[in-house]
């Protein structure tokens, strides 16, 4: 399989609404961008040229939305091969997807949780291995936010560890999702982070969420990152080092300066964890 180039620093989710302001003037604070490949495959014209201009200046990583790697319907091999072509075109160093399913014969437009069982471990691991074979490279799988569990024969942390080990893939650690789940399901988020396989963490996601009147939290990616999630990121860096970290913001997009302030906050936290001689405690490869 191809060995991806090293990635470091802080990144931003790239949305079409902001690409006009970025393709010719990428702020120094942004070390990489992330896109959903399904939204960009075969896109040409002005947008296609702008995306290519961006990927020629800074790394472009990809985060899938519709592969349904945990589903029971056959994997969409045509989509996977198109993603591979997209990765090759943009020399994208990372591809990730969600540890979930999103297809039940048709797209459900939601990321639904898998049962935390050994059977599910074997099923999803086999499918991840198939995806990696078709892509010709490793992929990372993301811990999702969830609101119910179909069946729980093991803990969420044990389930994630088992999948990553069995599939021999990497982990996209979403710190906001850890926080959201910890509040909704009443567990210690720091203990959860301790149980994650640090050596498998390819990169990290940060995002905002919405709190209902009754305290229930909905993962929206539509608000600023809150202080407890920043503190959990700092804790994560102190524990495993400083993997590349991306700010996700999908809705209620603020002015670019506000987005950049959060990207800079990521970089500031990373810098506090730097080791002597300019080396970081963790580097994703």
What's the helix and strand layout?
Layout: E1 10-13, H1 16-19, E2 32-35, H2 45-55, E3 60-63, H3 77-90, E4 95-98, E5 101-103, E6 107-112, H4 118-135, E7 140-142, H5 156-167, E8 170-174, H6 175-185, H7 189-195, E9 201-206, E10 210-211, E11 217-218, H8 227-240, E12 245-247, H9 256-272
Parallel strand pairs: 1-2, 1-12, 2-3, 3-4, 4-7, 7-8, 8-9, 9-12
Antiparallel strand pairs: 5-6, 10-11
What report would you give on this structure?
There is one protein chain. The chain has helices at 16-19, 45-55, 77-90, 118-135, 156-167, 175-185, 189-195, 227-240, 256-272; strands at 10-13, 32-35, 60-63, 95-98, 101-103, 107-112, 140-142, 170-174, 201-206, 210-211, 217-218, 245-247. It has 285 residues and is of the alpha/beta class. The chain has a single domain (10-278), classed as Divalent-metal-dependent TIM barrel enzymes (TIM Barrel, Alpha-Beta Barrel), CATH 3.20.20.150. The strands form three sheets. Strands 1-2-3-4-7-8-9-12 form an eight-stranded parallel beta barrel. A two-stranded antiparallel ribbon has the order 5-6. Helix 5 (156-167) links the parallel strand 7 and strand 8. It is globular. The two termini are 13 Å apart. Residues 275-285 have low confidence and may be disordered.
């Amino acid at each position: 399989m191809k060995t991806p180039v090293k990635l470091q620093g802080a990144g931003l989710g790239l949305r079409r609404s902001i690409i006009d302001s970025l393709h010719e003037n990428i702020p120094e604070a942004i070390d990489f961008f992330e896109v959903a490949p399904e939204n960009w495959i075969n896109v040409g014209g002005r947008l296609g040229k702008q995306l290519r201009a961006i990927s020629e200046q800074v790394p472009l990583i990809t985060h899938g939305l519709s592969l349904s790697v945990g589903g029971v319907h056959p994997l969409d091999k045509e989509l996977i091969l198109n993603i591979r072509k997209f990765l090759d075109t943009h020399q994208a160093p990372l591809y990730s997807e969600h540890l979930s399913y999103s297809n039940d014969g048709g797209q459900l437009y939601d990321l639904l949780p898998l049962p935390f069982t050994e059977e599910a471990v074997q099923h999803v691991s086999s499918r991840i291995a198939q995806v990696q074979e078709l892509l010709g490279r490793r992929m990372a799988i993301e811990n999702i936010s969830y609101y119910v569990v179909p069946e729980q024969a093991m803990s969420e942390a044990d389930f994630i560890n088992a999948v990553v080990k069995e599939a021999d893939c990497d982990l996209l650690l979403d710190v906001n999702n850890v926080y959201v789940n910890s509040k909704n399901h009443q567990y210690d988020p720091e203990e959860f982070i301790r149980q994650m396989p640090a050596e498998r963490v390819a990169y990290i996601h940060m995002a905002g969420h919405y709190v209902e009147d009754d305290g229930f939290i909905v993962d929206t990616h539509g608000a600023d990152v809150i202080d407890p999630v920043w503190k959990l990121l700092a804790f994560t860096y102190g524990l495993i080092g400083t993997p590349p970290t991306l700010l996700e913001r999908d809705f209620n997009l603020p002015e670019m300066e506000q987005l950049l302030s959060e990207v800079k906050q990521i970089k500031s936290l990373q810098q506090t964890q730097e080791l002597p001689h300019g080396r970081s405690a963790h580097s994703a490869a």
